[in-house]
Amino acid sequence: MLVTSEGDGCGDRDTTEVELTQAQRESSTSLRSAGVRNEANAPVRTCVGCRRRGLAADLLRVVAQKAEDEQPAAVVPDPQRRLPGRGAWLHPVAACLSTAVRRRAFGRALRVSGNLDISALEHYVENRHEHS
Ligand SMILES: [Zn+2]
């Protein structure tokens, strides 16, 4: 019994050390390449409308969806934060949305030039406002 438990303990410890080292290596690599992996430590984002910083949980992520050449790109809400591409952050309220539109902040933040179709975003903010 004594021998068995000692053997298990050693095996567990070895495995844990290897996994830890790999995890650390992976997290530092993705931190450098993506630059967005800090969420756990500092979940703070800047709203493109009012330019105030807020908790990421309070802000809505939006992304640009590029369309055909003739059509404007669309700014769409990404409440699940899963859409690929460059994102911007916005308080999901009409005031911040209109401020961002007036400043053309979406184009700057999302690196999209030309007209932007924000109807999907407007719809999202309006519906959200009605609920709360
Ligand atoms: Zn705001």
Automatic annotation (TrEMBL):
The organism sits in which domain of life?
Bacteria
Under InterPro entries, the record lists:
YlxR, YlxR-like_sf, YlxR_dom
| Protein name from the UniProt record | YlxR family protein
Tell me the organism's taxonomic lineage: Bacteria, Bacillati, Actinomycetota, Actinomycetes, Mycobacteriales
Q: Where is this region: Disordered?
A: 1-37
Q: Which organism is it from?
A: Nocardia uniformis
Comp. bias regions, Polar residues: 18-32
Among the Pfam families in the record, one is YlxR
YlxR domain span: 45-114
